Amino acid sequence: MGPSTSTSAVVKAFDPTKTREARKGVLGEDLPWPLPEVNNFVARGTKRTSIFVIPQVTLRKLAKTAGRRAIYVPSFSATAKGNLQYWNYPTSRPCFDLCWRWLTANCASLQAVALQLRILWASIRWQDMKPEDDDPDRRIVSHFPDRDERRWITSHKEYAPPCIYERYRISIEVLPLDDDKEIEEEDDLSWTSEGRSDRRKSTRRKRPAHSSTQRVSHLKEEWVDGVDLKLHEI
């Protein structure tokens, strides 16, 4: 059967030179994680809304293990289960981000939406996002007794589930400092001996031993957790 020549179907024109190729790479490093599905907090069977409705992916993991293994449930804190004074339910306690999404999804007026945006604005640590100085060089310099370290972020990796845990690869330039120490006087042990020549030698001072090799900076890289970095670094 030959190709259809009907003109009743929808026709779309495109540029054959601008074909969209599939991006290749590691998910979380080269490729961003896809946006998570919107949680409407509606149970499949009863169609009732509840804040304890969890995504299907996490629900399948819990069903496979039958509660015999500890499964990480995003946006729930299992440590609050034992505090019966503030949480008297035998389940994990919802965290702040889940409670905010639950209230936002059930907003019934524009005033409620405005209140949620105000809560979000007040929860952001704006002061931590500002650099500590006005230097245009955004590389962070850390001072140590024997060296200075200048570091900057080169790449990052995000782990599943998305928006929960990520690590950053930082390049660290180590700048060694001069170790010209004060000239220490020799221990005077001549007073225990009988010779005067030993007593004269004890008053001499040592000369600092200067290294013939010039110290240069070197570069190293390492992976650190996102929680160990400051917000203005990221």
Automatic annotation (TrEMBL):
GO process annotations (BP): regulation of transcription by RNA polymerase II
Start-end of Basic residues biased regions: 198-209
Gene Ontology molecular function: any one: RNA polymerase II cis-regulatory region sequence-specific DNA binding
Highest taxon above the source species: Eukaryota
GO cellular component: NURF complex
Positions of region (Disordered): 186-217
Protein name per Swiss-Prot or TrEMBL: Uncharacterized protein
Origin species: Cylicostephanus goldi (Nematode worm)
Taxon lineage: Eukaryota, Metazoa, Ecdysozoa, Nematoda, Chromadorea
